[in-house]
Amino acid sequence: MSNQTIYALSTVYGKSGVAVIRISGNDVLDIIYQMTDIDISNIKARHAYFTSIKKKDSKELLDKAVLIYFKSPNSFTGEDVVEIQCHGSKAVLSSILKELSLFENIRLAEPGEFSKRAFYNKKMDLTEAEGLADLIDAETEAQHKYALQQMEGSLRNLYSSWRSELVKVLSYLEAYIDFPEEEISEDISKDVLNTVFKVEKEIKEHLKNNNVNERLRNGFRIVISGETNAGKSSLINAFAKRSAVIVSDIEGTTRDAIDINLDIEGYPVIITDTAGIRETDNPIEKQGIDIAKEKIQHADIVLALYDATKNKQSSFPILENYEGKVIYIANKIDKLSEVEKKNIEDFGHICISARFNIGISKLTKVIADILKDNFASTSNPLITRERYRIALEECLQNLQIFSLDKEIELAAEDIRLACREIGKITGNVEVDEILDKIFGSFCIGK
């Protein structure tokens, strides 16, 4: 890790009432001394100073700002840190950042470098760092909630507990390798097998919900399917509360899958408007229908929409294999009588009029309840990264081939590799090759 002092703007560049510039490293006190009137010999940590920010040579005033000093190791990065809360105009920010660049042994931080230094200085593990990144990117209530849990160590605690149990098993096996004349006692053998079985079972359970967990970050996939002119585009516009897609009475208007990102009661969803499914000779429309079928296959929820005035008990042969995730919706019910609407509802279908916004709130509630049920089905913290899932699957494979009937050295290697895979997640092994990839996705000031 570089020993240079780093700095960066930690808020969005542009016009704002207040902006924050963060500086971390060994030269923090020297920068305070040269750019402010604060007596650094008596400076108090975590104390807010209202001070002038000046050019270090000419002492020309750059801004009046609030400065807070965080003394190592009690800071975000574990190093000496100062945060300058200045006015957020482009002129002020540019002048302060330019002045900082004139100091020796100080440079602009790389993306995620503050968090990377916090990791190296053991202020957080990799799961907490990625939880922080998710918190910054959170757009919905659910994303916010689970990012906070991860940032506070929910995954770290779970994975560290598994690793600790396996390390204990490994210590037993290593002891018998060092003293080959000793035989593994029955009690130790039983303890080892029970521990491995327990961890294996818990990892399997944790992996069961990986699709739901990863959807939390990327959004649940909801596909609107149905025949042409059923009102699919009108429905997606009703969800979006704007004219997100073209609505037309001309059949085959929608020929490609169109994604709209929405927040449904705190859960991120991606609603896809697809081409109407019908027999056609038009090669472009056929391609759109093929795309629609592929989207349905990978959807979490399918909204099977039909025109209630034409087909009151519509069947969708294409959806027969996806019954567990299909919601049947009768559109254009504004043209039906109350008796006709009740007959449709008796089939368990939801009645709406996308054009007149009738029944949309009820449909939204049904979708939200399904999403909540998915989250309620898991008591463990969520797998929010693909790399976690891959490492846990590798760990599980090593545990599944473990046996005390093997040579003791081979059995120990199975456990050692399992520990290493969990360590890749939290950072308890040498993982330099993945650090740049992880922290490189952070914003500059974080």
Describe the fold and architecture.
The protein has helices at 28-35, 90-101, 113-120, 126-137, 141-151, 154-178, 186-208, 210-218, 232-240, 283-297, 338-345, 360-376, 386-400, 408-426, 432-439; strands at 5-9, 19-24, 48-54, 61-70, 81-86, 106-108, 220-226, 258-264, 267-273, 301-307, 326-331, 350-351. By secondary structure, the protein is of the alpha/beta class. Strand 11, helix 11 and strand 12 (350-351) form a beta-alpha-beta unit. Helix 13 (386-400) packs antiparallel against helix 14. The longest helix has 25 residues, at 154-178. The chain starts with a strand and ends in a 7-residue tail after the last helix.
CATH architecture annotation name of the largest domain:
3-Layer(aba) Sandwich
CATH domain fold name of the largest domain: Rossmann fold
Mean pLDDT: 83
Q: Figure out the total of helices.
A: 15
CATH superfamily of the largest domain: P-loop containing nucleotide triphosphate hydrolases
What is the element layout, followed by pairings?
Blueprint lengths: L4 E5 L9 E6 L3 H8 L12 E7 L6 E10 L10 E6 L3 H12 L4 E3 L4 H8 L5 H12 L3 H11 L2 H25 L7 H23 L1 H9 L1 E7 L5 H9 L17 E7 L2 E7 L9 H15 L3 E7 L18 E6 L6 H8 L4 E2 L8 H17 L9 H15 L7 H19 L5 H8 L7
Parallel strand pairs: 1-6, 7-9, 7-10, 10-11, 11-12
Antiparallel strand pairs: 1-2, 2-5, 3-4, 4-5, 8-9
